Amino acid sequence: MSERHYLEAELYERIASDPVIFDFLQAGSLDGIWYWDLEDPEQEWLSPRFKSVFGYEEDEIPHTSTWWQENIFQEDLPAVLERAKAHFEDPEVPYDQVVRYRHKDGSTVWIRCRGLAIRDEEGKPVRMLGCHTDVTELKQAELKIKRQYEQLATLNKKLVEKNEALSRFALI
User: Fold this and answer.
1) pTM to 2 decimals?
2) Residue 23: in which H helix or E strand, if any?
3) Calpha distance 106→110 (Å, rounded)
4) Residues 31 and 111 sit within 8 Å (Cβ to Cβ)
């Protein structure tokens, strides 16, 4: 294993000693983080940025796992829980998926959710650290392209049918 670069070591020290650095990294590179107590699963810290992505102020969402489980699309929840279980059982299984949540205004927010189980000395998951990335614009563009492709396929089918009818007419 290579030796840690001195700037990397310095950054880790600064993050540990200065909360402003951590806050800057968190606000500047992610759309929210969360830290979940797996020994008391109702307890979960949700960062202010996490809450704002969904249209809420800091005091409008409690620091509980109930909130996200109620606001995630219920069709997505089983896959989230299955993926978490697989990650808890095997650290080599990544916790990384795209899920849908309800925004405060009723719209859909697409989130790439990644997490890492933090384990005790015996390897048992005791906490989970996670980060969110808002991919709503990407998913909306993807859905728009898919609809356009479907429209083009329908138009192409109609064009083929009309050409076949025209060919039959020409034969007559």
Assistant:
1) 0.75
2) helix 19-29
3) 13
4) yes
